[in-house]
Amino acid sequence: MKKGFLLMLLISCFAFFTFLSSASAAGESDFTKAVNEKLKEINYYANGSAEIVNSISKEAEITKVVTPDDPETKENEEEIDTYKANVVVGHVAYKLKRDSIFYIQKHEFFYYDVDNQEFLMLGNFPEDEEINALFKEYMDAGHKAGISLTSNLLFTLFVLLAFLAVPMLIMMFHNKAIPVPMVRNNSVM
To answer: Does the pLDDT at position 20 exceed 60?
Structure first.
């Protein structure tokens, strides 16, 4: 009876969480999709783990260097282009997956030009106070990056098992190697 109940509970939980993950994937924004595509370039990125912590969407003035200055000449050939576009600026938390069991939490800031569908840098917004304030808030918050709690617990369990299992195995095999006392045929009993 208990096994049947536990099996039904497990199946219903699996179905419920599968539905939740598919429903959340359908509601992804363009920014989240673009961030996931960008993060796929990173080694060990746990696919779909990007979570937007804080973001703003606005029309901002973007400054880009079209042609860089040639350092070998005296005159300045640098061409700068300034235009307005809709941008999404977001603080994104994501996970790196190592050895399929250890997860490392990371935080990064992304600037996405929605109109041109490209990622920018903070230097492209020199005069925008709102974007600079969001970045300073992110820097001051001191978000912790590192190994998650479950990964730490799993690693600790492996170390403890190694310290306990190796001596246990040695004791088991060592005890089997002890010879049984021999009884001689010519001995008196």
So the answer is: no
Residue 74 within any structural domain of the chain? yes
158 and 97 share a domain? no
Structural domain boundaries enclosing 170? 149-175
- The C-alpha atoms of residue 84 and residue 123 are separated, in whole angstroms, by 15
Q: Looking at the whole model, is its pTM more than 0.70?
A: no
Question: Do 136 and 164 belong to one domain?
Answer: no
Average pLDDT over residues 99-120: 86
Comparing 152 with 141, the larger pLDDT belongs to 152
